[in-house]
Design brief:
The chain is an alpha/beta fold and about 280 residues long. The chain contains ten helices and seven strands. Helix 1 runs parallel beside helix 2, helix 1 packs across helix 8 and helix 5 packs parallel to helix 6.
Length: about 280
């Protein structure tokens, strides 16, 4: 399908796993794509792999002036802007490792994470919206996370930024929906990007136990959802946060442990519990 023929899209964090997969998918759907990233070399590699429908632009998500320049440069190069996929995030391991708890996190890591993960989304939207409103239509898709809805043992700044993104999405949809703007967010679960694949295998196996599909997520799964939300097929969806996590958050937190218990080979307790569960 080419649902995005003649559309122009910006993908921030376009050099990363989800960003690059999204750039490929949007181009395959007919869009011209601006691959935006602080890593211009990698962004160019992605754009070249996508083909002549893509260009690479360098910008710094921690600098609102740079974000304004990005929006203006994209429109200057492509003539218009129809789709903004806010997808940038702090990904440097040395920064992420310091994003811990309220007691231990350094303020500079807190400030940096919110500036890149949250303020950059607001800034890109701020500078993109007038162009979209003038055309009478536009789509903004924000990358949130399951961490924005549930607590965890670490990454307090990351989770807080993602929670705020979900509500930022609702505010933009509420304030600009009647001007032709649709704004939705996506909350991915574990997605097997190159960085995620380096995670301790035991951790991946633990997470897999909570997923209700036979595999973990791939960047292409999120990219497909972005393409759908950017298209007119999603024309009646606005202000929503859509989870893409293989069903991990659809069930009670004890389900994985209960499944192991029920599957305990020859366990009299498990068999007895199973019989009780079958009773009305």
């Amino acid at each position: 399908m080419r649902r995005l023929e003649d559309k122009v899209a910006i993908v921030t964090g376009g050099a990363g796993g989800i960003g690059s997969a999204t750039a490929h998918r949007l181009a395959a759907e007919g869009a011209r794509v601006v691959v935006a990233d602080i890593n211009l070399g990698r962004a160019r590699e992605v754009a070249e792999a996508v083909g002549n429908q893509a260009i690479a632009l360098e910008y710094d998500a921690a600098d609102t002036a740079s974000i304004k320049d990005l929006i203006e440069a994209a429109i200057r190069h492509c003539g218009r802007l129809d789709i903004l996929h806010n997808n940038a995030a702090v990904t440097a391991p040395e920064k992420q490792s310091q994003d811990t708890t309220a007691v231990d996190i350094p303020f500079e890591i807190w400030d940096l994470t919110l500036r890149v993960n949250l303020t950059s989304y607001m800034a890109a939207s701020k500078y993109a919206l007038p162009h979209m409103i003038a055309r009478g239509s536009g789509v903004i898709i924000n990358t949130a996370s399951g961490s924005g809805s549930y607590g965890d043992l670490a990454r307090i700044a990351y989770g807080t930024s993602k929670a705020a993104i979900i509500n930022l999405t609702r505010y933009i949809a509420t304030q600009h929906g009647l001007q032709g703007i649709r704004c939705n967010s996506i909350s991915p679960g574990l997605i097997l990007t190159a960085a995620a694949e380096k995670t301790v295998p035991e951790l991946l196996q633990m997470i897999q136990g909570h997923v209700l599909t036979k595999r973990l997520g791939r960047p292409e799964d999120v990219a497909a959802l972005v393409a759908f939300l950017a298209s007119e097929d999603a024309g009646y969806i606005n202000g929503q946060n859509i989870t893409c996590d293989g069903g991990m958050t659809s069930h009670q937190p004890h389900v994985a442990d209960l499944r192991k218990f029920m599957q305990s080979a020859g366990s009299p307790a498990a068999l007895k519990a199973a019989e009780k569960m079958k009773q009305p």
